[in-house]
Specification:
Layout lengths: L1 E4 L2 E2 L1 H9 L6 E8 L7 H14 L3 E9 L9 H9 L6
Parallel strand pairs: 1-3, 3-4
Antiparallel strand pairs: 1-2
């Protein structure tokens, strides 16, 4: 899970993805952002997925969730509803 800031993946996650070994790992990408239209989440997911694949991992799913507004935490029920909507393959 990671936040999307200014329509981009956060630098700390980018640094992690460059050095992580995902060999034999199945990865689900989950992002949070403040915009309800989830703008640019596809771009961020594609970037993360490319990094995971480069490090020998397999991306099995991507989810974009709405989090809190700038400076505020999201309500627990908002996050719970989004997590409950997730489905995982096999």
């Amino acid at each position: 899970m990671q936040p999307i800031w200014a329509s981009n993946a956060i630098p700390a996650m980018n640094a992690f993805l460059k050095q992580a070994d995902f060999s034999g790992k199945r990865v689900t990408i989950i992002t949070f952002q403040q915009f309800t239209d989830l703008r640019n989440s596809d771009k961020v997911h594609e970037s993360i997925a490319a990094a995971v694949k480069k490090q020998n991992g397999q991306v099995i799913g991507t989810y974009a969730f709405v989090g809190g507004k700038m400076g505020h935490c999201a309500a627990k029920n908002l996050i719970d509803e989004q997590i409950d909507s997730m489905t995982f393959p096999g």
